[in-house]
Design a protein that fits this description.
heterodimer, A: about 325 residues, alpha+beta, 5-stranded antiparallel sheet, 10 helices, 16 strands, globular, B: about 500 residues, 7-stranded antiparallel sheet
């Protein structure tokens, strides 16, 4: 763990509460600077997402370290360069977890990409878990959006804008994330030849219902007695067997309305695993890029122009 | 930094009533605003109101703030009509303010600078309940509780449940990112709205968000929710349906001190339990509520904690027992489990009508809204009682303890000279105490005009500048609900929008 900066909550009266004083973050702001194209490298786990980076762009890396973890508040303040696996280990030691997917990347990288955990039904969306963002602006300034507590409607929602923005609006430096208690029991069950939609409808709050066209995997989490009663409910529908883990997920991602899974075109997707109730499909083949409506594009272009007037942040990529 | 209201009061000409406008222009010397004729052409004469009574009514919301002046008031019924109103506003360079039921407590719906007031309460249809996708498409004027009442028999509900849910609208919930007691487990409005159709200040219509996971593009839906009507007007909303829990347990724990109740809340969270709701009421409010609804609240407890756990039967049982044990560890004097659905409903009725109940004591109240870290609850509450004492005010505390979301209720009588000033002074100290404890300005009421002048205590000027950049991307000329949220110095285009009204026309 890195050295913790001075806590903002101990600010003397009259000072701006969310002003950044952490020298590590201020150094990162200086490194990003205000001139020339720049991109945050991270661990390159999603390097080809959103187009390819222009040539000759200076690469930087966000600082790492957990700044402040308060299990009793269910929040963690973590620098963007921290590996998700390191964060997960610290949270697990206190019986908690976050909504981030761990696939070798950094916390900032996962937030910049903005994709939910496979078990989004159980863990909540990544977007809803980001309480506060700190990023370096195109002008090289440290900017804070949101706040460090679990409920907050103080001003415009910069955290929502930064999640999934692929580092094109600012270089993520630090986040405050919501954490959640680790469930007492986690169990995967599988059955063949059963309707995944029936399964999903009968369960109260599964963490995942996954389907590859023939088999259904269910991830149940919670109190042991609850998991067992849900398991009995499943056994009444089909012969579910306990398995150690869920299915392997193909690398391409599709998105659709949950109801469209009923008419999934498996010729287009190739082999697939679909998340029932969510509308996420992991597939062999890539999804054709969706047509964006012109007003949405105009809003996105204006946001980019307002946040990064010279186009220096992660040039070549578009979220 | 002075508030926008103060500045407007000093910008006298268009704030002072001078000439009453009557539609039809019966007196030739009256300047009739050409915008009215265009609005009538876009809607119909019965849905464009310019009479003084209607406008006076809509110059206020549920907050204590005066100083609003409504321009013409429109009641569109379709997206196309909202678009037409926006186009009239654009053509005449006028500002607009969207409005639902007007239950906001931060002044977010107060019209500043005589804008066109766009009331969406006639757009109140539930368009579609799509169980396959677990969403309902609704118009913005649908009342929060009406939606849940329609959904309950189908096995679902809309999770955000603000105290005003009997009257507040879904459009207002989107504008304020509303919460409510049960947001502790389920999250506030932005976790329950998947898509929004919005009419922008330009008159263009856009669909933000969608039914599946968002893989491409910025989260414009997330940016819009909670923007207090400054980014456009929501005309259709796709809300997520939450499954009704098979089992619910409601516990009432009594304590001999507010500190014990607050510490119980922190200890429950620290134990890894996330109840559906954890609400605390202090003795003063409990007595007021009990007089009002006869719910069986204990009158001798210094504080009561209303805790609700929901879910599958076994887990609910386990969590309820553990909450009881934690309460007893923190010196709970009584732990009562609601024995019937009726008893449960009555306990919640007490909690949700708390604000009405205080009218027995004083005619007016000022309801504050700040958030502090849960572990700071007890200390900040102590400071709040001190602050109220020093300003010779009665304070009652009823709050979403599980979220650390405080709602100090300051009672006053606005007929007594100086009393409202003392309320504002005490409020400022409460905000400072919350910020100094590591909290934020608002948990669910928003900034509106109430807290703009405090935004620069929470955020640096760079932070506020970036919030303004977000706002400008949606509405470059700041004609949608101008003068709200950001302090004036950070939103220059607002001043322009506030001065766009012909002088002397809209008094």
């Amino acid at each position: 763990m890195s050295e913790a900066p001075e806590k903002t909550s101990e600010a003397p009266k009259g000072r701006v509460v969310l002003e950044v004083t952490d020298p590590v973050l201020l150094d990162f702001a200086r490194e990003v600077g205000s001139e020339g194209p720049v991109a945050v490298e991270g661990r390159r786990t999603r390097w080809d997402l959103g187009g390819s980076l222009d040539e000759g762009v200076r690469l930087v890396n966000a600082p790492a370290g957990i700044v402040d973890y308060r299990p009793e508040e269910m929040t963690v303040q973590v620098r963007a360069g921290t590996l998700v696996s390191e964060l997960d280990a610290v949270l697990a030691a206190a019986g908690q977890r976050a909504a981030l997917t761990s696939r070798g990347g950094t916390v900032g990288g996962v937030v910049a990409v903005g994709r939910d955990h496979r078990d989004v039904l159980g863990r909540g969306t990544l977007r809803d878990s980001v309480l506060q963002v700190r990023y370096v602006s195109a002008e090289g300034r440290m900017v804070t959006g949101g706040g460090p507590v679990v409920k907050n409607v103080s001003g415009f929602n910069l955290p929502k804008l930064m999640v999934g923005s692929l580092g094109t609006l600012g270089c993520l430096a630090e986040l405050v994330l919501r954490t959640n208690p680790m469930p007492a029991v986690s169990r995967w069950l599988r059955a063949d030849g059963v309707s995944p939609f029936d399964v999903y409808d009968r369960l109260f709050d599964p963490s995942s219902v996954l389907w590859n066209g023939s088999s259904v995997w269910v991830h149940l989490e919670g109190h042991e007695a609850d998991v067992e009663s849900e398991e009995r409910r499943l056994q009444a529908i089909a012969a579910f067997v306990a398995v150690g883990h869920g299915p392997d997920l193909p690398s391409e991602r599709w998105t659709m309305a949950p109801s469209d899974l009923r008419n999934l075109d498996s010729e287009a997707t190739g082999s697939f695993v679909a998340s029932v109730g969510v509308g996420r499909v992991w597939a062999k083949n890539p999804q054709p890029f969706p047509v964006t409506d012109p007003v949405t594009t105009m809003l996105a272009d204006r946001l980019k122009a307002n946040f990064d007037p010279t186009g220096r942040l992660n040039p070549g990529r578009r979220p | 930094m002075s508030s926008i209201l103060d500045r407007l009061k000093s910008a006298a000409p268009f704030m002072n009533p001078r000439v009453a406008v009557r539609f039809g222009g019966s007196r030739a010397e009256q300047p009739v605003d050409p915008v009215v004729r265009d609005l009538v052409a876009a809607l119909s004469s019965d849905r464009v109101r310019i009479d003084g009574a209607e406008r006076a009514l809509l110059s206020h919301d549920a907050s204590v703030f005066d100083g609003g002046v409504a321009g013409p008031v429109c009641f569109p019924t379709t997206t196309a009509e909202v678009q037409a109103v926006m186009e009239v506003a654009l053509r005449h360079g006028r500002s607009i303010v969207p409005r639902g039921a007007g239950t906001g407590l931060a002044g977010g719906a107060i019209p500043l600078g005589a804008p066109i007031v766009v009331v969406v309460t006639k757009m109140n249809r539930i368009l579609e309940v799509d169980l396959d996708n677990r969403v309902a498409w609704v118009e913005p004027g649908v009342v929060n509780l009406d939606l849940t009442k329609q959904l309950r028999p189908l096995g679902f509900h809309f999770a955000p449940d603000p105290s005003s849910q009997q009257v507040c609208t879904i459009g207002g919930n989107v504008a304020n990112n509303s919460g409510g007691p049960h947001c502790l487990a389920y999250g506030v409005t932005d976790a329950h709205v998947v898509a929004i159709e919005v009419v922008l200040a330009s008159g263009e219509t856009v669909l933000l968000g969608g039914l599946g996971p968002q893989d491409h593009g910025l989260d414009l839906r997330g940016a819009f929710i909670g923007s207090e009507g400054t980014l456009g007007i929501a005309t259709k909303v796709a809300v997520r349906l939450t499954k009704n829990p098979p089992e619910v347990r409601t516990l009432l724990l009594s304590f001999a001190s507010v500190r014990d109740a607050a510490n119980t809340v922190s200890a429950v969270i620290a134990a890894g339990i996330v109840p559906a709701a954890m609400e605390v009421m202090d003795q003063r409010i409990t007595i007021a509520v009990e007089n009002f609804v006869k719910a069986g609240y204990p009158l001798d407890a210094a504080a009561v904690l209303l805790a609700e756990v929901e879910g599958l039967a076994d887990g609910v049982e386990i969590d309820a027992k553990q909450i009881e044990a934690i309460g007893r560890d923190h010196h709970a004097t009584e732990v009562r489990l609601a024995q019937s659905e009726e008893e449960r409903a009555l306990l919640w009725k007490g909690r949700k009508t708390a604000f009405g109940a205080v009218a027995q004591i004083k005619p007016d109240y000022y309801l504050h809204d700040t958030v502090v870290p849960r572990s700071a609850l007890a200390d900040v509450l102590e400071q709040i009682y001190d602050i109220a004492d020093r300003h010779d005010l009665i304070v009652m505390n009823v709050f979403h303890a599980g979220d650390g979301n405080l709602h100090p209720l300051l009672l006053f009588d606005r007929r007594i000279e100086g009393e409202l000033d003392r309320v504002h002074a005490a409020g400022a100290e409460i905000l400072t105490a919350s910020l100094d404890a590591g909290g934020v300005l608002s948990g669910e009421h928003g900034i509106g005009v109430e807290k703009q002048q405090y935004m620069d205590r929470l955020f640096t000027s760079d932070d506020l500048d970036h919030q303004n950049r977000l706002r400008h991307a949606f509405d470059p000329s700041c004609r949608t609900n101008p003068g709200k949220v950001l302090p004036m110095g950070h939103s220059c285009a607002d001043i322009q929008a506030l001065r766009s009204v012909p002088r002397d026309v809209w008094g």
